[in-house]
Amino acid sequence: MTADQYLQMGEDPPGVRLELVNGEIFVTASPSAAHSFTALQLGSVLLQHVKAHKLGVVLSDLDHVLTLHNVRRPDLLYFRSERVELIGEGPIRHPPDLAVEVLSPGSGRIDRVDKFEAYRAFGVQHYWIVDPIGRTIKAFKLRRKKYEPAGSGGRAETVSFPPFEALEISLGDLWWPPK
């Protein structure tokens, strides 16, 4: 199946999340409470920072056409102000400045290997992998077409990662159950 054929299917059925992977439909269950909480908390932190400093736009869970046969849905996406016009109507077809994936039980290999490679090949400049169960976050920056580590943290540490070096993120606020 091509990306255009996949996109003609419309919205996902209730209780599942669909992506197109190498021309085949990939089905995952709806997110867990830990996944949802972490994604919303981190999204809120990023959104407040981006809005306060007029840096661009933060989006979540949108179809993102990576290739003719691959459509992924990062948990969070960030586009700098000067690139917002690339978003347009319908699915996103340009690399964001940041893609964030929050791990769910069973998605570790997909997010750490498959999506890592797909986002790298697509030219996503910054990629963060957030593990709400392990309570860790790892950041990567694209250099010479390869991802290099750009920082990591865990538990209740305070971290700053590119492209938001001026933003301090208190990781303890991201984890489920809330304190």
CATH topology: tt1808, chain A
Main-sheet strand order equals: 3-6-7-8-9-10
CATH architectural name = Alpha-Beta Complex
Question: CATH class, please?
Answer: Alpha Beta
Briefly note the structural class of the backbone: alpha+beta
Q: What is the terminal-to-terminal distance?
A: 45 Å
Shape: globular
Question: What percent of residues adopt helix (DSSP H or I)?
Answer: 10-25%
Number of strands: 12
Protein model, in words:
This protein is of the alpha+beta class and 179 residues long. It has one domain (31-173): Alpha-Beta Complex (tt1808, chain A), CATH 3.90.1570. Helix content is 22%, strand content 34%. The chain is built from 3 helices and 12 strands; from the N terminus they run H-E-E-H-E-E-E-E-E-H-E-E-E-E-E. It has helices at residues 3-7, 33-52, 108-122, and strands at residues 16-21, 24-29, 56-60, 64-67, 70-72, 76-80, 98-102, 126-131, 136-143, 146-154, 158-159, 169-170. The longest helix has 20 residues, at 33-52. The mean pLDDT is 96.
